[in-house]
Design brief:
Blueprint lengths: L2 H10 L20 H14 L5 H10 L16 H45 L13
Length: about 140
């Protein structure tokens, strides 16, 4: 099993794993027999194209995981709405910072295209060459 997969699974199914299997911060993970059985059961369920949340629910129903409350898809209340607005503003500012040099370059290229079209439109028709392709 690839190491990144094991890391992900130990995070996703931490509620049913021993402390040694959940080890992090550079410490070596030590899996008990029960940990291996849980991860095999999770693997079998994941191979049925179930989501991690669905696998956690099934494992909880089987008594292999402690039931974990799923986070609601939408937040309610004024505090949550304020946090959402703040997050949206932050993401927009990051996108603006990343996009601004590209937008400036696009504007410069569009200006060059306009200038080249103007030169072509003002050129003497006798001096124009035929393009080798149709367009």
């Amino acid at each position: 099993m690839p190491v990144p997969t094991i890391r992900r699974w130990t995070q996703e199914f931490a509620a049913g794993l021993s402390a040694g299997a959940r080890a992090g911060d550079g410490t070596v993970r030590v899996f008990t027999h029960e940990d291996v059985l849980l991860l095999r059961a999770a693997r079998d369920l994941l191979q049925q194209d179930l989501t991690y949340a669905a696998v956690r629910r099934k494992l909880a129903d089987q008594g292999k995981l402690q039931p974990v409350e799923e986070q609601p898809a939408t937040a309610d209340g004024p505090a949550d709405e304020e946090e959402r607005d703040q997050a949206v503003r932050f993401v927009r500012s990051v996108i603006d910072d990343v996009m601004s040099p590209h937008l400036a370059r696009i504007a410069a290229l569009e200006q060059q295209v306009r200038e080249l079209r103007e030169v072509l439109n003002n050129a003497d028709p006798g001096q124009r060459r035929r393009w080798p392709f149709k367009g």
